[in-house]
Amino acid sequence: MIKVGVLGARGRMGRAVCEAVDAAEDLELVATVSGRDESLDKLEGVDVVVDFTLPNVVMGNLAWCVEHGIHTVVGVSGFDEKRLDAAREILAADPEVGSVIAPNFGIGAVLMMQFAAKAAKHFDSAEIIEAHHPRKVDAPSGTAVHTARVIAAARAEAELPDMPDATETDPQGARGAEIEGVRIHAIRSAGYVASQEVRFGGPGERFAISHDSLDRASFMPGVLLAVREVVKRPGLTVGIDDLLD
Ligand SMILES: NC(=O)C1=CN([C@@H]2O[C@H](COP(=O)(O)OP(=O)(O)OC[C@H]3O[C@@H](n4cnc5c(N)ncnc54)[C@H](OP(=O)(O)O)[C@@H]3O)[C@@H](O)[C@H]2O)C=CC1
Ligand SMILES: O=C(O)C1=N[C@H](C(=O)O)C[C@H](O)C1
After folding, report:
1. Other CB atoms closer than 10 Å to residue 26's CB: what's the count?
2. 136, 146, 185, 211: which one is catalytic?
3. How far apart are CA 1 and CA 17, in angstroms?
4. Does 112 carry a binding-site annotation?
5. What is the pLDDT, as a whole number, of residue 229?
6. Residue 49 in contact with residue 70, Cβ under 8 Å?
7. How far apart are CA 46 and CA 73, in angstroms?
8. In sequence order, which ranges of 131-233 are alpha helices (DSSP H)?
9. Mean pLDDT for each 10-residue chunk of the chain (245 residues)?
10. What pLDDT sits at residue 16?
11. Angle subtended by helix axes 142-157 and 107-120, to nearest 10
């Protein structure tokens, strides 16, 4: 039995994780921390902490867990390369402790990113449209940023030139955010949980890959897989791609 603690347990994701852990026969939900005023000491003795809090508190949580020899599964968004390096440094303090940090635990979303990376080298143009519920505090989404990075890496490897774009004036930012040369357009709207479409274009053709999380249940198989795997994987694992394989 793996003893699990959940951080951010009263949040949208935290509630779904508590339910999923409770329903899993090989996992036991032994502690929850719901808000920033609650002490992390409640988590002492758990095997794995699942963290779905917020970007401004997640690094402190990670440091506390590593200090206490606890593995972590982290879904909080905002992990750029600098943050991942900081996480590696924190984890170096205990070489037996593992952490899985993933921009998206949805299996379909992971496949969408893998397929986007595969398609990227074949098209002149690639842009990302992400749509989320209006209570999301960060934009663009961590998933969109990660997708932009894998597309940029695939294009660089294939030695593709910059994407064609004659825009000279865009005072309102209508062309969206740019991450490593890839444009991201973020929608915040009632009626969404998390959706993303990657649109590719080449001579005489368009190609799109899209994924929709309609319910937070979509993230749970990936979260539970990470909980089961992280106890066997010391150090940092980024994304669940390797775990699925
Ligand atoms: N990787 C993935 O697959 C997914 C990642 N996410 C990411 O997960 C994060 C959480 O999303 P979501 O559940 O929608 O957000 P919510 O705002 O619903 O939940 C966050 C919760 O964390 C709590 N919290 C804040 N600080 C602390 C703290 N120090 N200790 C314990 N709890 C704390 C908040 O409590 P209070 O309100 O009292 O401050 C709140 O209940 C976001 O970064 C989101 O982008 C979301 C979905 C999937
Ligand atoms: O805040 C959310 O809801 C989500 N956050 C993650 C992100 O920023 O990519 C994952 C998913 O898109 C849902």
Report:
1. 9
2. 136
3. 17
4. no
5. 98
6. yes
7. 13
8. 142-157, 220-230
9. 97 98 98 93 97 96 98 95 96 98 98 98 98 96 96 98 98 97 98 98 98 98 98 97 93
10. 98
11. 30
Give the pLDDT confidence score for residue 245 in this predicted structure.
84
Q: Whose CA is nearest to atom 37 of ligand 1?
A: 35
Helices and strands of the chain, counted as H and E runs: 7, 11
* Tokens 């899209």 sit on residue: 210
Q: How far is the CA of 77 from the centre of ligand 2 (A)?
A: 7
Q: Radius of gyration over alpha carbons of the chain, in Å?
A: 19
Question: Is residue 136 annotated as a catalytic residue, yes or no?
Answer: yes
Cα of 223 from ligand 2 centre, angstroms: 13
* Contact of 125 with 164, CB cutoff 8 Å: yes
SS3 175: coil
Beta bridge partner(s), residue 100: 73, 237
Could you tell me if 31 and 5 are in contact, meaning their C-beta atoms sit under 8 angstroms apart? yes
Catalytic residue selected from 132, 185, 211, 232: 132
Mutate to test the pocket of ligand 1, among 36, 56, 146, 219 (most ligand atoms within 8 A of CB): 36
Q: Quote the pLDDT of residue 37.
A: 87
Active site residue 118: no
Cα distance between residue 39 and residue 41, in whole Å: 5
Does the annotation flag 13 for ligand binding? yes
Distance 19 CA to ligand 1 centre (A): 16
The tokens for 55 are: 């970007």
The 3-state DSSP class for residue 125 equals strand
Give me the residue label for tokens 């999923």: 20
ipTM of the complex: 0.98
Which amino acid residue places its CA nearest to atom 12 of ligand 2?
194
